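Incident log, structure service

09:12 report received: a user says their structure output differs between two submissions of the same chain.
09:20 pulled the input from the user's history:
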Amino acid sequence: MKDTSNSGMIVATLIATAGFTVPGGNNSDTGVPIFLRTNAFLVFAISDAFNFGFGVLVNPNCSLG
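09:34 re-ran on a clean worker, output below:
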Protein backbone atom coordinates (compact mmCIF):
# COMPACT_ATOMS: atom_id res chain seq x y z
CA MET A 1 0.00 0.00 0.00
CA LYS A 2 2.85 2.37 0.83
CA ASP A 3 4.45 1.77 -2.59
CA THR A 4 1.19 2.68 -4.27
CA SER A 5 0.91 5.93 -2.34
CA ASN A 6 4.54 6.82 -3.11
CA SER A 7 3.98 6.19 -6.81
CA GLY A 8 0.83 8.27 -6.72
CA MET A 9 2.68 11.16 -5.07
CA ILE A 10 5.38 11.13 -7.75
CA VAL A 11 2.83 11.05 -10.56
CA ALA A 12 0.82 13.87 -8.96
CA THR A 13 3.95 16.00 -8.61
CA LEU A 14 4.90 15.48 -12.24
CA ILE A 15 1.39 16.26 -13.47
CA ALA A 16 1.20 19.41 -11.36
CA THR A 17 4.58 20.57 -12.66
CA ALA A 18 3.60 19.93 -16.27
CA GLY A 19 0.54 22.11 -15.77
CA PHE A 20 2.62 25.28 -15.40
CA THR A 21 3.29 27.31 -18.51
CA VAL A 22 6.23 29.58 -19.11
CA PRO A 23 5.65 33.33 -18.69
CA GLY A 24 4.82 35.02 -21.98
CA GLY A 25 3.94 31.76 -23.72
CA ASN A 26 5.70 30.12 -26.62
CA ASN A 27 6.39 31.25 -30.17
CA SER A 28 3.80 29.41 -32.26
CA ASP A 29 6.26 28.86 -35.14
CA THR A 30 9.27 27.55 -33.21
CA GLY A 31 7.84 26.50 -29.85
CA VAL A 32 10.58 28.45 -28.05
CA PRO A 33 9.54 30.59 -25.05
CA ILE A 34 9.07 34.23 -26.07
CA PHE A 35 11.00 35.60 -23.07
CA LEU A 36 13.84 33.06 -23.34
CA ARG A 37 16.60 35.67 -23.63
CA THR A 38 15.46 37.90 -20.73
CA ASN A 39 16.70 38.05 -17.15
CA ALA A 40 13.17 37.60 -15.84
CA PHE A 41 12.87 34.26 -17.61
CA LEU A 42 16.21 33.13 -16.18
CA VAL A 43 14.98 33.98 -12.67
CA PHE A 44 11.74 32.10 -13.36
CA ALA A 45 13.53 29.00 -14.67
CA ILE A 46 16.00 28.83 -11.77
CA SER A 47 13.34 29.39 -9.10
CA ASP A 48 10.98 26.88 -10.73
CA ALA A 49 13.69 24.19 -10.84
CA PHE A 50 14.74 24.94 -7.25
CA ASN A 51 11.18 24.80 -5.96
CA PHE A 52 10.44 21.52 -7.76
CA GLY A 53 13.60 19.90 -6.41
CA PHE A 54 13.03 21.23 -2.91
CA GLY A 55 9.44 19.99 -2.93
CA VAL A 56 10.53 16.49 -3.91
CA LEU A 57 13.30 16.38 -1.28
CA VAL A 58 11.23 17.78 1.57
CA ASN A 59 8.18 15.56 1.08
CA PRO A 60 8.80 12.59 3.41
CA ASN A 61 6.19 10.46 1.60
CA CYS A 62 8.00 10.65 -1.71
CA SER A 63 10.68 7.98 -1.93
CA LEU A 64 12.55 7.63 -5.20
CA GLY A 65 14.51 4.56 -4.12
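09:41 both user submissions now match this output. Likely a transient worker issue. Closing.
09:42 reviewer note: The chain has one domain: 2-58. The chain has a mean pLDDT of 76.
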